[in-house]
Amino acid sequence: MYQLEGNVALVTGGGSGIGRAIALRLAREGCDVAILDISSEAATAVIEEITALGRQAIALVANVTRFDDVDRAVGETVSTLGRLDIMVNNAGVLRLGRIVDMSEEDWALLFRVNVDGVFHGCKAAVPRMMEQGGGTIINMASWTGKIGNSHFGGYGATKAAVIGITQSLAKEVAPHIRVNALCPGIIIHTGLRDEAEEVSRQLGLPSAESRTAGIPMGRLGEPEDVAGLAAFLASKESGYMTGQSVNITGGQWML
């Protein structure tokens, strides 16, 4: 559909959840894919799925909180698969709780993974993309980066930072590289959502299912919903879009 044959993508946190769905969708669109994940087992499992689709794929074990790890992974992607056209900075963690109750350790972890991880991915990818004449960066933000939500203050703050990084970098590297962000709403069938549901029960917060009534489209999101938008943003069909933070919320949030 999006004619991505010949492109090479790297997806951080690609071993599960939304990252896995994005990696598989890009492979189906014709991309060769590098999977970066902290879990070798998870990355290898997705690699097997991608090669079964007839595409080349490599597994990269790295911690996105360390720039040297990410830079090495990006370099290995270029040396093994030939180039880097699409960088998807998807790796993330979630910690729930009121801001005044959150530990400094949890606050710091959120920013190290969700913000520093995006910064490291962009910093490593941009020079390689400039050398080859261009590319596309897709950062994982969230609707909680646009509107404050009780018990999501730390997480939302990191996603607001990702939106800020996306907008500033888009201006710095245009017209050669396009930079956009994804802002998912409530997405089920992911490890982060499972974790959020468990903590929500402990805190007495509403479950994801109980919030369906507040979603105009009448359902919760799936990883494949996010993957479809990622494929669009990676393609020439979105060639005049940069610096955007696009909602995938079923209408739950529209700004």
What's the quick description here?
The chain is of the alpha/beta class and 255 residues long. Helices cover 45% and strands 15% of the residues. Helix 1 (17-28) crosses helix 7 (223-234) and helix 3 packs parallel to helix 4 (104-132).
Return the structural class: alpha/beta
Strand content: 5-15%
Spans of 5+ residues with little confidence (pLDDT < 50)?
Answer: none
Main sheet: strand order: 3-2-1-4-5-6-7
The CATH H-level homologous superfamily: NAD(P)-binding Rossmann-like Domain
- Span of the ends, CA to CA: 28 Å
CATH class: Alpha Beta
Shape: globular
Helix content: 40-55%
- SSE order: EHEHEHEHEHEHHE
What is the CATH third-level topology name? Rossmann fold
Verbal overview:
- By secondary structure, the protein is α/β, with parallel strands linked by helices.
- The chain has a single domain, classed as Rossmann fold, CATH 3.40.50.
- 45% of the residues lie in helices and 15% in strands.
- It has helices at 17-28, 40-52, 67-81, 104-132, 153-173, 191-203, 223-234; strands spanning 8-12, 32-37, 57-61, 86-89, 135-140, 177-184, 245-248.
- The protein has a 7-stranded parallel beta sheet, with helices on both faces.
- Helix 1 packs across helix 7 (223-234), helix 3 (67-81) runs parallel beside helix 4 and helix 4 packs parallel to helix 5.
- The longest helix is centred in the middle third of the chain and has 29 residues, at 104-132.
- The mean pLDDT is 96.
